[in-house]
Amino acid sequence: MASHNRSRQRMEPSFEEEATDGDSLNIGAGERVSGGSRKASAKPAGKSSSRKTPARKTSRRQRGSGGGFFGPVRRMIYWCVVLGIWGAIGVGGLVIYYGSRMPSATSWAIPERPPNVKILAVDGTILANRGVTGGEALSLEEMSPYIPQAVVAIEDRRFYSHFGVDPLGLARAMVTNLTTGRMVQGGSTLTQQLAKNMFLSPERTLERKVQEVLLAFWLEQKYTKDQILTMYLNRVFFGSNAYGVEAASRRYFNKSARDVNLGEAALLAGLLKAPSRLSPARDPKAAEARAQVVLGAMREEGYISDSEIKTAMSQPPTKAKSFWSGAQYYAADMVMDQLPGMIGKVDQDLIVDTTLDLTLEKKAEETLAASLDAEGEKLNVSQAALVSVDGTGAIRAIVGGRDYATSQFDRAVKAKRQPGSAFKPFVYAAAMEIGRTPMSVRNDGPVRIGNWTPENYDQKYRGEVSLAEALANSLNTIAAQLVMEVGPQNVIKLAHRLGIESELQSNASIALGTSEVSLLELTSAYAPFMNGGFKATPHIIRRISTADGTVLYENTYDSPPRVLDPEVVSEMNQMMLGVIDHGTGKNARLKGWEAAGKSGTTQSFRDALFVGFTSNLTTGVWFGNDDGKSMKKVTGGGLPAKAWHEYMAAAHEGLSPSPIFGTAGVQPVFDQNGQPPATIGDVISGNFGGAPAGEFPDRPQGDGNQAAQFPPQGNGSGLVPPADVGQTTGATSRRTTLFDILTGG
After folding, report:
1. Three-state secondary-structure class, residue 108
2. How many Cα atoms within 13 Å fall on the side-chain side of residue 601?
3. What is the rounded CA–CA span in Å between residue 711 and residue 488?
4. pTM of the model
5. Which residues contact residue 213 at a Cβ distance below 8 angstroms, ignoring those fewer than 6 apart?
6. If we measure between CA atoms, which residue out of 293, 316, 296, 317 comes closest to residue 306?
7. Is 568 in contact with 400 (CB distance < 8 Å)?
8. Which member of 12, 92, 139, 488 has the greatest number of CB atoms within 10 A?
9. 100-138 per-position pLDDT tens digit
10. Spatial CB neighbours of 240, under 8 Å, sequence gap ≥ 6
């Protein structure tokens, strides 16, 4: 018993130690002592449980809160990571989806730039660029260095460092737009803009944006930065229908992008934000304000110094007209109208060499503008046109109106108006072909042809006059008699032979120029008088070639056909010299130069023309109003003759004077014994120097005085012989009345 008690006593310390240890290990020790009473064993366990439970709860709360402040931060980071992963998966899915809707990358290619037509003057100076872009493509090395610097500074400062997409720029744009509450900045890089412009539609959709990014990556992989920038600058829209820096430079500054200065480059770069709204043609002040912002950006990027920016900011604002300005653009329009007929569809860059002399073109434009500015309002005349051609028909100057920027309608080529008395040289030339001469005499008196009674401008009659005097003073009665002697149809044939292409009415009033023609064809039809009788087909295009020099077209107007006998030309030139020397064209006299021509005025002073020539140029000038309103007594010998003189004097400055064809040493020729030669064969082979017959077409044959036969009066079939014609007297007259001429009696 004693030993048993001792044994228990020895065991108790062990129990206490075990209990102590068990207490630190929670309640497991008490449950293992199962030999004693349940109470005894539960008590220490209960005490242990009640003592440790609050500690466990506190520990769990601390773990649940993550240590107080850091718990929410850790949760936010956790969810950001989770959402980021899912977002990346979603974006990747969209990229894959929208990318799958695009053609295979192996088929991607830079679309061809729309073809440009570069139009050159006769000396190689650029007249205009035409096509969708409006300008040729330039390399970075060719254009002013300020242009790429300005564009990079304001549009994409990290262009040379990003990989097609600029995350920093995108983030900056998002922050700026959020803080301002509106779209202030865009996050697209130049590469993205190029991708959008070349491949995609302008619609703002998620699909288009994803495709834009993919295309930007492709561009960056396939091309160098300089190549991308070059493509961008040659294709981007600069407002006012100008695509590319060359078109924009010529549009706004009338110069090439090669010659753009710092201020102009800043203005161009500034347009990219809103090309139409900021165009200097629309809002010069807004364009200049934006240019100042660009200059500041260039300075921040280190492209320019403070002194350079000060100089640029001191330059006056650029003022651009609302449309392309300059008379040379009428010529450019003419070229573009003719191109398809010569080479077909324009599907590549072309170079067109023209016959236009830019110096003469500018002088012509200045002359017409000065005339209209000085007297236009006073004389109620608002428009003018001018055409100047050489002996081959090559157009040296053409002005289609007062101001191309205001009206692009070409009045020299497309407008058809009555030429008035400027048509009379064709009537007289037809009379010369059937044997009349400048010294042939007719009676200037009252004339009635059917129901038509032509009158002279001054309503006076001079009696017997030579044809030379009649033409010099533009006597309508004599022209009416001649057209009846020759026959209207023969006059029409001659006019067409010389270059008139418009349809002409076969009636007696054709003598006074009542059929409508264009100024270009009328002027060109005078050129055979200047060149000795050869056809002068009007043309402005000399050569068409591709950018690599392949010639597609070259004109063949160097061997024109003869359309007038040289002796007829000589006689006509003698008479038209008199028009300027002492007739209606005295205002056109040129100091030191022989000049010949004819004035023309239409009914009620609606149109006034003067067409004349020297041995060097043939020029026609027209004044009038687009709506056909009458001018205040403006005649062809007035305002048009004065303008003709001003232009031709400048055109001949520095040239050595030379006589007009067939006028030097020519003696006047009278009718033989009061009669013209018996036949046109005599005219050609006998009396006129032995020129072979049939050298030019459509000449009338037969008795020199035989006129076209007209239906007798009253048959209702057209023209009728006159009932009364003023008589002519004197030894040079074979018949006394026009009725005798018509009836052969």
Report:
1. coil
2. 23
3. 13
4. 0.73
5. 164, 165, 192
6. 296
7. no
8. 488
9. 556 555 556 777 888 999 999 999 999 999 988 888 889
10. 251, 252, 275, 276, 279, 281, 282, 320, 322
